[in-house]
Amino acid sequence: MKKVIGSVLLASLVCGFANAQEEKKDTTGFIFTDVKVAPTTSVKNQNKSGTCWCFSGVSQVEEDILRNGGKPLDLSEMYIVRQCYLDKADRFIRMGGQSNFSPGGSILDVPLMIEQYGIVPEEVYHGVEYGEDGHVHAELQAVLEAYLNAVNKHPNRRLSTAWRKGFEGILDAYLGEVPETFVVDGKTYTPQSYAKSLAYNPSEFVPFTSFTHHPYYTPFVLEVADNWFAAPYQNVPLDELKAIVDNAIDGGYTVLWAADVSEPGFKWRDGVAVMPKAKEEKDLSGTELARWVKLTDAEKKRDQYNFNGPVDEITVTPESRQEGFDRFETTDDHGMVIVGRATDQNGKNYYKVKNSWDDKNHKYNGFFYVSEPYFLAKTMSILVNKNAVPASVAKKLK
Questions:
Q1: Is 25 helix (H, G, I), strand (E, B) or coil?
Q2: What is the pLDDT of residues 121-146, one digit of tens each?
């Protein structure tokens, strides 16, 4: 099938550099000044789909193309989602249903899928063929899971030769058929040839994490369900994880960021994420007031996170970070992109982060600011171009 399109996107999609000390004031009392921001394409909306990993991963691809001098592009997230579903289905059936099949994914899924199956522009493959204006995947996921569970029961005692074709048929119905060829700016491509024409090399990207239950400077398979193909991540000390991000931002690279966003200090609507210190409680025992003031734990926690501007934050150590992971207080929630650095009115450092929850009804049009303590405590993993890794760290990893 051949589909003809025009130029993929206008240069107006580029957010551009923000090195010019731009101030951003938040209603919670924060005043942020952007210090260094890489060029980015427009904020997208994953809507009602569990595909943050793909929206953030594709965003990083688009930004790496810009960094390499390419024009601004809008690449198809749902093409990648479709290919990932196919690979997950193959693994699920081969492993007798004992592998993860969910909408979620890892920070490595996008470069892996591009390397194997290529990529297409958004205009070629929107992936919305089911009567909705945006991505709504609950029914799709339910149908795919029911289909695979039925196949996995082996009602014929052995697999038919048609099961995968049937699975592809479901994806065709919901997401659309993938064209064999398409035309961009007068040139005909396949998904693979189009990927090779872009100023992007998926093999240049390396995943990093920082946990103490494995030795540093050796790779290990990160134990989260969405690492469905058991990919190894490079394990580095916490200060070096931060150094990698800082070096990348200073060099004009963006960083794919997988993190826990369940903390009360993650205030998306207010455009900020912080880790406040616990407030000291007065000892009311034996007083008349104690008869009437009986706060629940939830009320105490809520009160702790009611702040108006910069706050004192916790000190994060490798040990406290590990405890959060071991006790499932830090979980693999969400994929985003770190695009820059900023400071607040007190000179404290923050990372500027691009999200995929649309740019409407939000203080910073889809971006927000993450304090360094929040990053240190709640980062699950990062994906970065290997050329952005400081030489001192790269040497230790050989």
A1: strand
A2: 999 999 999 999 999 999 999 999 99
CA distances from 184 to 197, 207, 228, 373 (A): 11, 32, 34, 44
Eight-class DSSP state of 383:
E
Mutual orientation of helices 163-175 and 138-152 as an angle, nearest 10°? 180
Domain boundaries, the chain: 2-397
Ordered DSSP codes for 152-186? HT-TTSS--SSHHHHHHHHHHHHH-PPPSEEEETT
Instruction: Please enumerate in sequence order all residues whose Cβ is within 8 A of that of 153, keeping only pairs 6 or more positions apart, or say none.
Output: none
What are the tokens at 355?
A: 């999200």
Q: In whole angstroms, what is the distance from residue 32 CA to residue 255 CA?
A: 20
Separation of alpha carbons 78 and 378, rounded Å: 28
- Residue 256's H or E segment, with its range, is strand 255-259
Q: What is the mean pLDDT of the chain?
A: 90
Q: Under 8 Å CB-to-CB from 176, ≥6 apart: which residues?
A: 78, 125, 126, 127, 128, 129
- 282-304 per-position pLDDT tens digit: 555 555 545 545 545 555 555 56
Burial of 201 (0-12, 13-18, 19+ CB in 10 A): middle
CATH code, residues 2-397 = 3.90.70.10
CA distance 194 to 182: 9
Give the strand pairing for 232-235 and 205-209.
parallel
What whole-number distance in Å separates Cα of residue 101 and Cα of residue 87? 10
The 10s digit of each residue's pLDDT in 221-274 is 999 999 999 999 999 999 999 999 999 999 999 999 999 999 999 999 899 999
Angle between helical axes of 52-67 and 77-94 (0-180°, round to 10) = 130
Contact between 254 and 60 (Cβ < 8 Å): yes
Cβ within 8 Å of residue 202, ≥6 positions away: 110, 111, 112, 114, 115
Strand order, beta sheet including 2-4: 2-4, 181-184, 187-189
Relative to beta strand 266-267, strand 379-385 is unpaired
pTM here is 0.89
Query: How many Cα atoms sit within 13 Å of 28 on the Cβ side?
Result: 23
According to DSSP, the residues that pair with 25 across neighbouring strands are 31
